């Protein structure tokens, strides 16, 4: 089974869902998140958003990333060539997940920011998330 590529608003390939159907990596092989049902979590347990119908949605229901199989939603840009995938690094141990927020009504709009930065959650961001909700809200 071929990994599923995630593309941003500009059609840039930013990450991929491994063929295990759960682990999300950057193209350099860095593990950045994992799926639990339709929820997307960092390895430290922070809820980032939702994966449904080939789209990654943020906590407001706006669209962040899409796959080749995405259906519905706003027009998608032409997909750019995927970079070569580096060797997959070891996945960190998963921390306990924070409670999954209520799923928002899904929007037909792109989020304000749609790129690789979704996956690059820093410890400072995690503290802010703990104070006020999903990282994907920003």
Topology:
Layout: E1 4-7, E2 13-17, E3 23-26, E4 31-36, E5 39-41, E6 47-52, E7 55-57, E8 63-66, H1 123-132
Describe the overall structure.
The chain has 138 residues and is mostly beta strands. The chain has one helix at 123-132; strands at 4-7, 13-17, 23-26, 31-36, 39-41, 47-52, 55-57, 63-66. An eight-stranded antiparallel sheet has the order 1-2-3-4-5-6-7-8, with no helix packed on it. A hairpin with a 5-residue loop joins strand 1 and strand 2. The longest helix is centred in the last third of the chain and has 10 residues, at 123-132.
Features:
single chain; 138 residues; mainly beta; eight-stranded antiparallel sheet; 1 helix; 8 strands; 7% helix; 25% strand; globular
Instruction: Provide mean pLDDT, rounded.
Output: 84
- Which bin fits the share of residues in helices? under 10%
β-sheet strand percentage: 25-35%
Put simply, the count of helices is 1
Secondary structural class: mainly beta
Major sheet characteristics = 8 strands, antiparallel
Instruction: State the strand order across the main sheet.
Output: 1-2-3-4-5-6-7-8
Q: SSE order, as H and E?
A: EEEEEEEEH
Query: What is the 3D form?
Result: globular
Radius of gyration: 14 Å
Our measurement of the CA-to-CA distance between the termini, rounded to an integer number of angstroms, reads 33 Å
